[in-house]
Amino acid sequence: MDLQQQIQEYIASQPTAKQSDMQELHHIILELMPACKLWFLDGKNSENKIVSNPNIGYGLHTIKYADGKTKTFYQIGMSANTTGISIYILGINDKTYLTKTYGKTIGKASVTGYCIKFKTLKEISIELLKEAIQYGIKTSHKR
After folding, report:
1. In what order do the strands lie in the sheet containing 109-111?
2. Are 85 and 117 in contact (CB under 8 A)?
3. How far is residue 124's CA from residue 142's CA, in Å, rounded to a whole number?
């Protein structure tokens, strides 16, 4: 199964309302990052045990660990969770930026250093979510 099929099957496996929101978000992110590398992580480790929710990734970001090692990973991620959807924005140095900038204004969402989690798209400002994603893209490309 190719990557596009895996992504579409993952989205299609969600309950109808979440499926619709995830499909819309997938299109929004692809509009913001038209030529990006796509990722699909099934959430399983090398022993085939589930260690996280499956997620779709967009773009490239290099994670630098304290020991000096690096890992190529996605820059923007999307995952279904038990209560809704999580959008991951990696590569932002200031871990308070998303919370300070969008925490009180984006709508009914939980905002942390690199994640914006919400139940449905209609409960948040899609424009502010796009702005946060674009900020993450710009910040990561500056390095």
Report:
1. 38-41, 55-58, 76-80, 85-89, 115-118, 109-111
2. yes
3. 28
- pTM, two decimals, is 0.93
Sign of the CA dihedral 11, 16, 22, 23? Answer: positive
Q: What are the tens digits of pLDDT across the range 54-104?
A: 999 999 988 888 899 999 999 999 999 999 999 999 989 899 999 999 999
Buried b (16+ CB within 10 A) or exposed e, 71-80: eebbbbbbbb
The DSSP string of 47-82 is TS-B-S--EEEES-EEEE-TTS-EEEE-SEEEEE-S
Burial 103-121 (b: 16+ CB within 10 A, else e): eeebbebebeebbbbbbeb
- Longest Cα–Cα distance in the chain: 43
